[in-house]
Amino acid sequence: DGDFTHEGELCTFEVLxxxxxxxxxxxxxxxxxxxxxxxxxDKYEHPATSGIKAIFDGIISSATKDQDRLNLGSKSxxxxxxxx
Length: 84
Prior knowledge:
Layout (H helix, E strand, L loop, with lengths): L11 H8 L5 H15 L9 H14 L3 H18 L1
């Protein structure tokens, strides 16, 4: 019952960017990575996707609490966005 979800070929992150009319180039690049990780269709084949997947897999295997996973994943995405 969430207000945001996948729409057509877009993942939720892409929908959020579109709905809020966010124009930041780093966010658009990040959306490509999130899309490839979420939808798994290799639509964008972003070169950072496999590395981010490995980092997220490491977070999942090393952090047992959901809040810890969210915090670590969020920080990782913040750093990735800064690099884009």
